[in-house]
Write a structure and sequence with these properties.
This protein is an alpha/beta fold. Helix content is 46%, strand content 15%. The strands form two sheets. It has a seven-stranded parallel beta sheet with strand order 3-2-1-4-5-6-7, sandwiched between helices. α2 links the parallel β2 and β3.
């Protein structure tokens, strides 16, 4: 029996890989014990209990980005967080700490190092965050979702995917997916998504240019996001939904996707061999652009800057692509060639290696 502490949270990019690995480990080792470390207000506070795992929360301690009160208070708050995690590790006799980035991972890595427990790091983005950069100096068991990620001891393992996506065969499930969303049997579907909250610029551009897309003989499944103000449409073949809890079916229905370029989104779409148009979020450190760069360079996707994603771009570039089945097929083949389906298994193998090495190192 192994006692695992899995640390990560805040966003889906941290929580979903964590849950994919936790579920796979639990399936292989039902006798083992699993504790998830997170915060009380992150996405993990809902998803972790829903998956049947115990969630232990600590205070969120973000790294201050500019001088001020928070910077003065940071060292003390961080030390308290480390003490809390050390107590969890000691009381539960944790065998290995597996971190996925986010606010709680940095204190978890320091606590594990001080308690002399093995550490595994998984980095989902091409641009590593502070926590995983720290963790990479404390262990040689470091997995990354994208090749070329600059992180100490990095080993390419891909993105851990849920079993629902990992085992998905869109060709088999497409008929049921089309029925689920109300499309005709032979519809060619463009999936548009900006994430659970939505992306206003993508929403507005597609909504304004949708007639041209429909005129090319395609249908559109537009997941607008919960913050969108777009209403229902009466246009045949244009289906708007604010939120989709069956992304496996959405991906099954799609022959092309327009989306932001979050790490999980790019990894999932590419793993399924679906061609895409990525419109990276134009803020932060440019990580979304880098997330999509690999598959775009391999010819499996197009990438367009947010400012350039306009009605005229759709008319000049997207519509001709939609009218060229051979080009769509080539994009799909290139995406499938670089996509990784077994990221969960590879990450689990990295965890098992860390546990085995720790046992060998014990006197």
């Amino acid at each position: 029996m192994t006692r695992y502490l899995l640390a990560g949270g805040g966003t889906a990019g941290h929580v979903n890989p964590l849950l994919a690995v936790a579920n796979r480990l639990r399936s292989a080792e039902p006798e083992s014990q699993f504790t998830v470390l997170g915060t009380a207000d992150g996405l993990e506070s809902r998803l972790v209990p829903e998956h049947g795992f115990e969630l232990v929360t600590i205070e969120k301690v973000p790294m201050p980005r500019r001088p001020g009160t928070s910077m003065v208070q940071f060292p003390g708050r961080f030390r308290r967080a480390v003490r809390e995690v050390r107590r969890v590790i000691a009381e539960r006799d944790i065998d290995v700490v597996v971190g996925f980035g986010g606010f709680v991972s940095a204190p978890a890595y320091i606590a594990a190092w001080r308690e002399k427990r093995p550490i595994v790091v998984h980095e989902a983005n091409t641009v590593p965050g502070f926590a995983n950069r720290l963790g990479s100096w404390l262990t040689r068991h470091v997995g990354v979702a994208f090749e070329g990620t600059r992180l100490r001891n990095a080993r390419f393992v891909g993105m851990p995917l849920s079993s629902a996506l990992e085992d998905l065969d869109p060709a088999v499930t497409r008929p049921a997916a089309l029925r689920h969303f109300g499309f005709e049997e032979k519809s060619r579907v463009l999936l548009v998504t900006g994430g659970s909250l939505g992306a206003r610029s993508i929403n507005d551009t597609v909504s304004a240019a949708v007639a041209g897309i429909l005129g090319a003989g395609w249908s559109v499944l537009h997941i607008t996001g919960t913050r969108s103000e777009l209403g229902e449409s009466s246009l045949p073949g244009y289906r708007l939904v604010r939120y989709c809890d069956r992304m496996d079916l959405a991906f099954s229905a799609a022959q092309l996707v327009i989306s932001r370029a979050g790490s999980a989104t790019v990894s999932e779409i590419t793993a399924l061999g679906i061609p895409a148009v990525y419109v990276p979020l134009p803020i932060g450190n440019g990580e979304q652009k880098r997330n999509a760069a690999g598959v775009a360079a391999a010819g499996g996707a197009l990438m367009v800057a947010n400012a350039d994603f306009t009605e005229s771009w759709i008319e000049r570039t997207l519509v001709p692509l939609l009218l060229d089945p051979a080009a769509i097929s080539e994009l799909a083949a290139n995406a499938a060639a670089v996509g990784v389906r077994d990221g969960t298994a590879r990450t689990v193998a990295l965890v098992m290696e860390a546990v085995a090495d720790a046992k060998e190192d014990r006197p």
